[in-house]
Design brief:
Helices cover about 25% and strands about 25% of the residues. The strands form six sheets. The chain has a five-stranded antiparallel sheet with strand order 6-7-12-10-11. Strands 1-2-5-3 form a four-stranded mixed sheet. β15 and β16 form a beta hairpin. The longest helix is centred in the C-terminal third of the chain and has 19 residues.
């Protein structure tokens, strides 16, 4: 059955930046059958398509002259045990943070480090979301997706998704070719603390917690994120706007020679992940305002809509940040959100 199509639809309430943009057509989808019906609709033939989840990893730089598909596939069900993990299937339209909290209440920990990440579950594998020492890939079993070319549902394994740092095959070879319908999570039956990340360790120490439970980690992460990041319902933003750049050991050594206080985190293989927020701050842009767009004063990694900013204004500020960091450090920051 063809879902209801809305014309000249405002997307302001469907992106966490809160920028005004309109879609030529807009619809909500709750099942693969509705995606099949959209493919058969003559007036939509040849139009560009934008798949939308929670709108929290998106910057709309203008109107979209095509079809916006809001994925709202619901559901959460336990699939049982497999090896050393509990398997749980979650609909792509379910809110990510609410799912993390619900699973914790069900006695299924393992996602607590990823608490309060905005957006829906369907977007989690696309971005390979991560925070505080954990990535989705570590808790991922498989997903179901609608293949636009073959017009059928396919299951994808971790290898099929080709996860990387804030990256997956959905951002590269399969960009615009598959729509995530549901994800299956693999949650550890033998839970172990992941609390090595400095911010989490400091927060737990401040709370007097020496042997944290999953709920302690969850509460600590929520507290940290609420302190550092603005609430999109109050100040429009898409969370971290730039990826933390990864450099070789030699590149890191050269940078440290000129910038001794540079913040970095060692990675396997001799690489180092640099703190993009530190780079932006050191470039003198933390708290900067350009018209109605700005760099958040409490966390330089976050660009904000200070009220009525257009997507083009925010994009111009992002380019300024990239250029000034490149001038000072020779590094080009890569945006995390999808820019449309």
């Amino acid at each position: 059955m063809l879902p209801t199509l809305h014309e000249r639809f405002s997307l302001r309430g469907f992106n966490t930046f809160g920028v005004e943009a309109r879609a030529r057509y807009f619809c909500r989808v709750r099942a693969a059958s509705e995606l099949a019906a959209l493919a058969a609709e003559p007036k939509l033939a040849g139009l560009p398509r934008l798949v939308l989840g929670g709108g929290s990893n998106l910057l709309l730089s203008g109107d979209f002259d095509g079809l916006v598909i809001k994925v709202e596939v619901p559901g959460l069900r336990e699939l049982g045990e497999a090896g050393d993990a509990w398997h749980v299937e979650v609909g792509a339209g379910e809110n990510w943070h609410a799912t993390v909290e619900r699973l914790l209440a069900m006695g299924r920990p393992g996602l607590e480090n990823l608490a309060l990440i905005p957006g829906n579950c369907g977007a989690a594998p696309i971005q390979n979301i991560g925070a505080y020492g954990m990535e989705l890939a570590e808790r991922f079993d498989s997903l179901l997706a609608w293949d636009i070319e073959s017009q059928q549902v396919v299951r994808m394994s971790p290898g099929d998704c080709d996860f990387g740092y804030r990256d997956s095959v959905f951002k590269r070879q399969l960009a615009g070719r598959r729509v995530v319908l549901a994800i299956t999570l693999a949650l550890p039956r033998q839970w172990e603390t992941v609390a090595g990340y400095a911010d989490v360790a400091h927060e737990l120490k401040a709370r007097g917690v020496s042997q944290p439970s999953a709920r302690d980690i969850f509460d600590a992460v929520v507290s940290i994120r609420r302190r550092k990041l603005p609430d999109p319902s109050v100040i429009g933003n898409a969370g971290s706007f730039f990826k933390n750049p990864i450099v070789t050991r030699d590149e890191h050594r050269a940078l440290i020679a000129h910038h001794p206080s540079l913040v970095g985190y060692p990675l396997p293989g001799g690489r180092v992940k640099l703190a993009a927020a530190w780079l932006i701050d050191a470039a003198g842009l933390k708290g900067a305002t350009r018209g109605r767009a700005g760099v958040y004063e409490k966390q330089a990694l976050v660009l904000v809509n200070r009220g009525g900013a257009t997507g083009a204004e925010i994009l111009a500020l992002a380019r300024e940040v990239q250029e000034k960091v490149a001038d000072k450090f020779g590094l080009w920051l890569e945006p995390e959100p999808v820019i449309v």
